[in-house]
């Protein structure tokens, strides 16, 4: 139950923090978010001690996903 609650909270906070200006994703339902952003057609690879997420360039929401990722990683870390 705690894991489901944590997932729901994360889903609710991703939209206002990272997708507030993306049409169709700012107020999307959880099923829409799961279909468009959380099921990423990508491959995780390692090279030179770094991890790379290789996203399929033909995926329609690749730009929205990378924008959300960049915005979320630039958020300040709480002490």
Write a concise keyword list for the protein shown above.
79 residues, alpha+beta, two-stranded antiparallel sheet, globular
Number of strands: 2
- Helical/strand content category: alpha+beta
Q: Give the count of helical stretches.
A: 3
What do the pLDDT scores average to?
89
The level of helicity is 40-55%
Radius of gyration: 14 Å
Order of helices and strands: HHEEH
Terminal CA distance: 27 Å
Given the C-alpha coordinates, what overall shape results? Answer: globular
Stretches where pLDDT is under 50 for at least 5 consecutive residues are: none
What strand order characterises the main sheet? 1-2
Total domains: 1
Largest pleated sheet: 2 strands, antiparallel
Sheet-strand content, in percent, reads: 15-25%
Outline of the structure:
It is globular and about 35 Å long. The protein has three helices and two strands. By secondary structure, it is an alpha+beta fold.
């Amino acid at each position: 139950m705690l894991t489901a609650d944590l997932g729901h909270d994360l889903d609710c906070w991703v939209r206002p923090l990272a997708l507030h200006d993306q049409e169709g994703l700012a107020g999307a339902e959880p099923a829409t978010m799961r279909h468009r952003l959380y099921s990423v057609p990508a491959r995780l690879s390692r090279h030179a001690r770094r991890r790379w997420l290789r996203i399929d360039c033909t995926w329609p929401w690749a730009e929205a996903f990378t924008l959300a990722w960049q915005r979320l990683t630039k958020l300040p870390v709480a002490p």
